[in-house]
Write a structure and sequence with these properties.
The structure is a single chain. Helix 1 packs antiparallel against helix 2 and helix 2 packs antiparallel against helix 3. This protein is an all-alpha fold. Helix content is about 90%, strand content about 0%. It has one domain. The chain contains four helices and no strands.
């Protein structure tokens, strides 16, 4: 019984930790994009939601396909391709070009 309790605690703690990490990473990237691109509040909120969904999806894929690296790689690539499309829809063309140039120079 004690082992089961410890196991459940570790599983729940790891889920909470990964959620915080996803939120923190989404916030960091959103802040960086907001600063570099001078985003307004609405754009910043959209970018944050897009990034948060991305990181949560990536965490799910990594845990689901932990033992299948080829499938994991393919699924992660799909996530990154969708990310670009979602950001492109949320921001105008000029801001996406600015972000691309910034990332290249970084």
């Amino acid at each position: 019984m004690k082992k089961i309790t410890v196991f459940l605690f570790l599983v729940l703690a790891s889920n909470v930790y990964s959620q915080n990490t996803s939120e923190e990473r989404a916030k960091e990237i959103t802040n960086e994009m907001s600063e570099v691109l001078s985003l307004n509040a609405e754009e910043t909120a959209k970018v944050y939601e897009i990034q948060l969904k991305r990181f949560n999806e990536v965490n799910t894929i990594r845990s689901t396909y932990k033992k299948d690296p080829e499938t994991k790689k393919a699924e992660l690539k799909k996530v990154y391709n969708r990310l670009f499309g979602k950001l492109k829809n949320a921001l105008d063309k000029k801001k996406m070009q600015q972000w691309r140039i910034y990332k290249r120079n970084k």
